[in-house]
């Protein structure tokens, strides 16, 4: 998961890591930029406990599914 903007210096560092990671032909990669995703923070309404899902209809469930399926996660953030 990459928190950086596309084509930033953080993204350039990630691309170097990706190059090495993908040298092993068995590896696959999914890159997710969060800056262009629709994600809400928790309201604390506790509706998820009642209805089994969050009331916000955003990209979080899709991203969570990708995280749960992943064998390795790499996070990158500019400092």
Q: State the helical fraction.
A: 25-40%
Bin the strand percentage: under 5%
Number of strands: 0
What's the shape?
elongated
Distance between the termini: 16 Å
The low-pLDDT segments are none
> How many strands, what sense, and barrel or not for the largest sheet?
none
Q: How many separate helices? A: 3
- The run of helices and strands is HHH
Cα gyration radius (Å)? 16 Å
Description:
The chain is an all-alpha fold and 79 residues long. Helices cover 35% and strands 0% of the residues. It starts with 8 loop residues before the first helix and ends in a 10-residue tail after the last helix.
Annotate the secondary structure layout:
Elements: H1 9-21, H2 47-51, H3 60-69
Which structural traits does this protein have?
35% helix; elongated; 79 residues; mainly alpha
């Amino acid at each position: 998961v990459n928190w950086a903007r596309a084509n930033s210096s953080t993204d350039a560092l990630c691309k170097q890591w990706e190059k090495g990671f993908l040298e092993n032909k068995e590896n696959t990669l999914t890159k997710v930029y969060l800056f262009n995703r629709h994600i809400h923070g928790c309201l604390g309404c506790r509706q998820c406990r009642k209805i089994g899902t969050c009331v916000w209809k955003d990209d979080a469930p899709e991203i969570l599914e990708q995280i749960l399926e992943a064998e390795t996660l790499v996070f990158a953030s500019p400092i």
